[in-house]
Amino acid sequence: MKELLHTFIVLIIPFTVYSQTIQLNDNPWFIHSIETSNGTITEKPLSPDLNSQLTIDLTANLIIADLCCGGSFQMNLVHDAPNSNFAASNFSNTTVNCTETNNTDFSNLVIDFFNEHLSENFTYSITEENGTVVKLEVLNDEGETLHLYNSPHQNKASKLFHETYGIEWHLTSMEVNGTFTSMTPNSEFGEITAKFNYDGSFETQVCDQLSGGFTLGEGDSFHDFVINCSDLTIGNSDCNDPQNTSIQNNYFNFFSNHSDEILELTFVQIDYWDPIPCEAEVFTLTSASGDYLEFSTCSLLNINEKQQTPITLYPNPTKNYLYFNATNNLPIHQIRILDINGKEIKKYIDVRNKIDISFLSNGVYFFKIKSDQKVMVQKIIKE
Fold first, then answer.
1. What phi-psi label fits residue 84: left (phi over 0), alpha (psi between -120 and 50 degrees) or beta?
2. Full set of structural domains in the chain with CATH
3. Can you give the pLDDT at residue 191?
4. pLDDT < 70 positions in the chain
5. CA-CA distance, 52 to 30, in Å (whole number)?
6. Are 250 and 177 in contact (CB under 8 A)?
């Protein structure tokens, strides 16, 4: 029994000591939910209109809250670190500028959580989960609990995150306001890359920079992607080449044009042709209007080298027929058409020189072509 108790203590003490080293002001805290004393939980709605976040400044003794875009409040703070509690006073600057009723309702719950209990102490606990996720729980005297995390995304396992997988994403194509662009290495800016971080920030660059905040949905809506409206910062410097300026404007416009909606985030895995092997993760952000950005883990250099293969597909984009040009009469044993989510739509066996794709809806598709001990994947735009 003593050995078992000793083992239990050894297991929990490092976690407890490490957790206690995290302070209230070490992270921006994103509000995820509010729980009543009887266990009823209200989750924060996923919306570009709502960016519920607390900043705790122990130097200025302030708590500053961001609610809906532009809405906020602040309080004075008296911190009692040894007892893990704080007192709040002078609740002020309350504004709620939500455009959706459910966002206003959630913001008012956050306001009431603090404003109606200023005469009492708030207790808190900080715990660490899975190495990166840090959770803050604040309890008021009525038994209500505010659940906050150091990220707007509670789940850190998404392939998207740069910190988790070290991925720098390469833009391969985009369509914005009806203009389709297939990216190639550029002498002025090289490749367009982007990093999406677990803390809810992202940054990307063409000739100038764009940065912002984003939130992923949880659970069933994990493939929802929201650009946080209050965090988008866009540079205004042009490229030297006017054509590159047009590319930059279209790319940046995707983010600014769709900062007021929920975008669809989809992943598909692509195995590119040897002898330039590249098992690529590809993700696409798609708007309700059909605008999209496509990113890959493979650099454009590898992708463009990949396209110099014994089999070429043309024209691209195409409307009705897709033709195949195989050097040295290389046989095509199988072609599989995959949608943007990697789901198979149709399979062809022993293809000659063309296939009819007029039945496909307009959009982006992947064609997986199997030849003699080779498999290649090419992206095709159906118009």
1. left
2. 2-149 (2.40.128.270), 162-382 (2.40.128.270)
3. 92
4. 1-21, 164-165, 219-222, 229-230, 270-279, 301-310, 327-329, 341, 372-375
5. 6
6. yes
CA 333 to chain centre: 38
Residue 4's pLDDT is 39
pLDDT recorded at residue 94:
83
Residue type, 248: Q
Instruction: Output the CA torsion 103→104→109→113 (10° steps).
Output: 110
In order of 60, 125, 139, the CA distances from 85 in angstroms are: 17, 9, 9
Q: Which residue has the tokens 């033709």?
A: 323
pLDDT at 10: 36
pTM: 0.74
d(CA 260, CA 131): 33
- Give the per-residue pLDDT at 309: 54
Q: What is the C-alpha separation between 48 and 255, in angstroms, rounded?
A: 12
Kindly report the backbone phi and psi dihedral angles of residue 43, in degrees, each rounded to the nearest multiple of 5, phi listed first: -80, 145
Helix (H, G, I), strand (E, B) or coil at 271: strand
Alpha carbon dihedral 301, 302, 306, 308, in 10-degree steps, equals 30
Residue 99 to residue 109: CA distance in whole angstroms: 16
Q: Are 119 and 155 in contact (CB under 8 A)?
A: no
CB atoms < 10 A from the CB of 215, how many? 22
Tell which residue, 343, 342, 339, has the closest CA to residue 363: 339
